[in-house]
């Protein structure tokens, strides 16, 4: 006779377990495939009321539902369990298990009947201190499936307890029920979730947005935007001013990391909290770190999420506007002379504020470098490329003063590339105080 058969001899609505004797060792938890028999557990049962008949579970599928009177999901599962027990009458028995007192459970079912007119058809073990040692768990409801041969066949949540799964188990058909795994992790509600292992390592995070103040040890990292990652999309910018975050969020071109200073206008009552340089020195109090990680998203949606974050964090009004302003425009004549003669491409580290040397690289790459590095006229003016140079180029300017755009213009002229200052309607990012 199995321990469950012993437990159900009384056929009562409530069955109490006595605590294990002090000298008896705590039983080892059971897992799927283990046997649940008298050889594992030798307990004594006490019955709060007189015996009222015999309940035989031999040859039946037994499902234990660990529950609690304060567990809404547990209670919501009762009607489904009662229905399944009726549908598989004589083949299935559902047994409720709680560590709460008989008085509390009886009171609960009485109130439930009074409030909703619901009768209880399920037997419940109360004051349990034994079964939960065999099936330890954290969250309830917690369902244990014990096949007619006394083997633990599954440990699941409520959703997996359904007609199809029961038929599969009863008929020894192939089935693959998702198993419920309760991991006891340390969590302190006064600390940030997943930081330093608070709540676990966080490897299953789907959406993540974080903003922090200046963090020593992290690099001064302008921007990384990845909307095409196979495992998700992300934006990172570390130890940068608030202004930079808006420049990243409102840049609409995939090829660019952010809108440069020359295309950014701050119309703020006080700009000090928003810029990274103050009186020629780093303004550490205005530097922040930002990271956004989400499931794979398109470029536009990713930027929209960042804009929403910035509105929440800083509340500024930002938008793209068109203004007529002094602009440095690159033109080109016959560029045959600049076309590359081939060879190993020269890396970007040969481009600085004092020299330009590119070999077998595109002019657009050089232009983009100038825009982001803000070498030309120290980034004071927007840059526009109207050269229409196709293919790769070779340019070697050993020495040039990039801070003086006219000096760069003179150095580029032999390559039939012309740099001129013009008043142009230019798209700019305008950041204002919230209205």
Description:
This protein has 435 residues and is an alpha/beta fold. The chain has 3 domains: 3-170, Glutaredoxin (3-Layer(aba) Sandwich); 195-315, no CATH class; 325-432, no CATH class. It is 21% helix and 27% strand. The protein contains 9 helices and 19 strands. The protein has helices at residues 3-7, 72-87, 102-116, 131-134, 163-170, 242-249, 299-314, 363-373, 405-412, and strands at 14-17, 45-46, 61-66, 92-97, 123-126, 142-146, 152-156, 208-213, 221-226, 233-241, 264-267, 277-278, 281-282, 287-294, 317-332, 356-362, 383-385, 392-397, 417-432. A 7-stranded mixed sheet has the order 2-1-5-4-3-6-7, covered by helices on one side. Strands 8-14-10-9 form a 4-stranded antiparallel sheet. A 4-stranded mixed sheet has the order 11-19-15-17. Helix 6 packs antiparallel against helix 7. The protein is elongated. It starts with a helix and ends with a strand.
Structural class computed from helices and strand pairing: alpha/beta
Approximate strand percentage: 25-35%
Number of E-state strands: 19
Largest sheet, if any? 7 strands, mixed
Structural shape: elongated
Quaternary structure annotation: single chain
CATH topology of the largest domain: Glutaredoxin
Nutshell version of this structure?
By secondary structure, the chain is of the alpha/beta class.
